[in-house]
Amino acid sequence: MRFPTLALYILLSVKALSVFAAEPITLATGEYPPYNSVTFQHYGLMPKIITEAFATVGYQVNFVFLPWSKAYYLSKIGNVDGTAQWFNSEERKIDHIYSHPILSEKVVWFYLREYQFDWKTLDDLTGIRICALRGFTYTHEFHRAIRAGNLHVSFVNYIDQCFKMILAGRTDITLENIEVAYYKLRSLFKPELVSQFVYHQKPFQVSYNHLLISKKTLDAQKIINDFNRGLKQLKTSGKINQILKNSRMGLYEPKQ
Questions:
Q1: Helices (DSSP H) in 60-194: which residue ranges?
Q2: Is the peptide bond before 34 cis (omega within 30 degrees of 0)?
Q3: pTM over 0.70
Q4: In sequence order, what are the residues at sequence separation of 6 or more whose Cβ sits closer than 8 angstroms to the Cβ of residue 227?
Q5: Which residues are in the Solute-binding protein family 3/N-terminal domain (predicted)?
Q6: 97 and 116 assigned to the same domain
Q7: Are residues 125 and 240 in the same domain?
Q8: What is the pLDDT of residue 95?
Q9: What is d(CA 95, CA 117) in angstroms, rounded to the nearest whole number?
Q10: How far apart (Å, rounded) are the C-alpha atoms in residues 193 and 168?
């Protein structure tokens, strides 16, 4: 009977494939809560999504937290397999292969629920008190409107100050990434105060983040192709939406 021998061969082949597929991918990233943080469960929202996407196609992932510039550099020279997450850039494409977009990062207007606010263009913001951050990359049109005296803007160093100014009635609206804003609000205020803040559905800015695999990594294109397949499965199954929901509820954040 040859069946036992054949069965043993198949079993050993499957085990060998499993070991090969489980070879970890090492990715460098940096602190950007709630997207990424060494103190968060699963290292935050983005590592959770990346890990789940890779897991569906048979990969394990290790994350290394570094200053952002160093994380990118180590990926560029091939000391790690890749880095996450980054916006589109022709310069970065020289040394990396980009994944499909993972999430859209939306910057929106936040304000108090009781405040009657709507906007379609910057002209609609005339007469509204705006709190903005020094050093933040706003649009050219926004800065032109400020220079022209069409917008009333108070610049501060930290988004925490904007949210406190809104609650105190010293300003009306502020701009922030949705996920970052809710993380900051939860860290600043009790739930009953957080619930007073809402955001406008029309985004001020939308950018898409990506996983980057270094071109120096062996089988870089295959890794990206496999990741894209896993990412598509996550999106189709609704798991990404659930991960986002969990993040906005603060479920990945350190316990106080």
A1: 68-76, 140-147, 159-167, 178-188, 191-194
A2: yes
A3: yes
A4: 50, 53, 54, 57, 59, 99, 211, 213
A5: 29-245
A6: no
A7: no
A8: 97
A9: 44
A10: 12
Same domain, 28 and 153: no
CA distance 30 to 227: 20
Q: Please report whether residue 44 resides in a domain.
A: yes
Structural domain of 153? 105-205
Neighbours of 2 (CB within 10 A): 7
| Torsional sign, CA 46, 51, 56, 59 | positive
Burial class (CB in 10 A: 0-12, 13-18, 19+), 30: buried
Do 218 and 95 share a structural domain?
yes
**What residues of the chain score a pLDDT lower than 50?**
1-21
Tokens representing residue 213 in the block: 């695999």
Measured CA to CA, the distance from residue 240 to residue 237 in angstroms comes to: 8
In whole angstroms, what is the distance from residue 97 CA to residue 108 CA? 29
Residues 6+ apart with CB under 8 A from 41: 251, 252, 253
Same domain, 87 and 180: no
Residue 210 dihedral angles phi and psi, to the nearest 5°:
-140, 155
Residue count of the chain, please give it. 256
Q: How far apart are CA 10 and CA 13, in angstroms?
A: 5
How confident is the model at residue 12, as a pLDDT?
38
- The total of structural domains in the chain comes to 2
Task: Give the per-residue pLDDT at 87.
Answer: 94
Element (DSSP H or E) covering residue 27: strand 25-29
pLDDT at position 4: 42
* Alpha-carbon distances of 163 from 10, 131, 186, 210, 237, rounded to whole Å: 61, 9, 11, 29, 35
- So what's the pLDDT on residue 135? 83
Residue 256 in any domain: the answer is no
Using the 8-state DSSP alphabet, how is residue 170 labeled?
S
